[in-house]
Amino acid sequence: MPATSMEELVSLCKRRGFIFQGSEIYGGLQGFYDYGPLGVELKNNIKAAWWRANVYERDDMEGLDASIIMHRQVLRHSGHEATFSDPMIDNRKNNKRYRLDHLVKDQKADVIAKVAEAMGQSAENFPAVVAALNASPAQASQALKDAGVRDPFSGEVGDWTEPKPFNMMFKTTIGPVADDESYGYLRPETAQGIFTNFKNVVDSTSRRLPFGIAQIGKAFRNEITPRNFIFRVRELEQMEIEFFVVPGTDEEWHEHWLERRLSWWEAQGVPRSKIEILDVPKEDLAHYSKRTYDLMYDYPTLGHEEIEGIANRSDYDLGSHTKNQSELGLVANVEENLDSIAKLTIPHPETNKPVVPFVIEPSAGVDRALLAVLSEAFTKETLENGNERIVLKLRPHLAPIKVAVIPLARNKAELVELARSIKNDLQKLGLGRILLEDSGNIGKAYRRHDEVGTPYCVTVDFDTIGQSGADRGEDASLTGTVTVRDRDTLAQERVKISELTAYLQAKLK
Ligand code: GAP
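^ thats the input. predicted complex w/ glycyl-adenosine-5'-phosphate below
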């Protein structure tokens, strides 16, 4: 059974070294998390699985790794300076600041109903309530006070200000010059690096439509209320594809990507039955979107929340950057070079005339993916002997440690050295991390590896080296063999060391 609460996951992540609070020794920094020894492996494995499926296994994709800090003009002309904001509201009583929709959503049902009524909306249609609050700030402030909206921090009814937009981009100065022009932004989505490199990629690869550019990287959002562990953070990682298509074929491609992405999630152990597809209502679409499907995964405690957005961005971004580059004169000899340099166009595959392609964008959060994968793998089982165990039933390709090699006694040099040499041989297979686990307590080692999802434990014992001892009865046939324990079935099998690499390679494929 998957995890039933977020607390269970948070506790496992901290206990076993998946995720820690950022800057923890100085009291922590809200909205920032550090991935520990196992977290970094799991995260890398998720990203590798995504890259494999979306770049290596397709013939119509290129990869990219663009800079995080971007020219302010990029984010101005992408529309982010003007529109990448969330509504913010303050409580005058304690100066606490909240995101308006989160504040109202977390109130009791009768309070939400009163707010909705005051704004002339139905509480059933929450997005419409939020839209009405944003549209009439003075009325919103009064409605929240009259309805008795409580401050989540103090628990008391707040004295609410008028909501106002808060831009979520992190601004940073660039270089030693302290003038008003020397600033850039930390990208709020990786996508803009793809759009600004569109021409570079087309020219250097001779790609024709349809084709895509994939990128995995950090993005930054100064969230008003980061919360729910790594679900809503200020420094996040995204796995994004911008798939460029001939205008008019965009709707067909949108469906293609919806299907492809759902089957990818399934292959990571996140079943379709746990994902609802939200066809985002027109009034909630991002400024660039013609249509968006949000994949809403059923997270423990939170319920259905967005894990990935698949947007039809039309020709908005390439069109906007084309127009603004030439208007601003950012390209030398704009008039002469408009076709070859400034325009983010590509020849139409049939007419050969330049066309600004439409874009389908599947955009998934790595942190949210990791949370979903962990949540699906988390299993509590009662064993035959009545003991309870926690086991992470991760798909082998995602497991942070593929195999733990355990010498039965840490003070027996012969066992440790043989275990080390088996570990080194297995490591050469390129399956991922193989760990020499010489903590000395086999029971604890098994428990730990169940909890972190290690698919196989290999134990090197006295039988392996032909020293089982007269009291236990010699069994020469066990010499040169090790025990392989299966995480899920708990079955233990004796395997010859000479056959071990082939055995595990087949199991972990
Ligand atoms: N380029 C499109 C884009 O950025 P988005 O819906 O704003 O679209 C895409 O973000 C994905 O990034 C989301 O589906 C989510 O998985 C992840 N994401 C967005 N904001 C996040 C945050 N504050 N913390 C963690 N993940 C986030």
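The chain has a mean pLDDT of 93.
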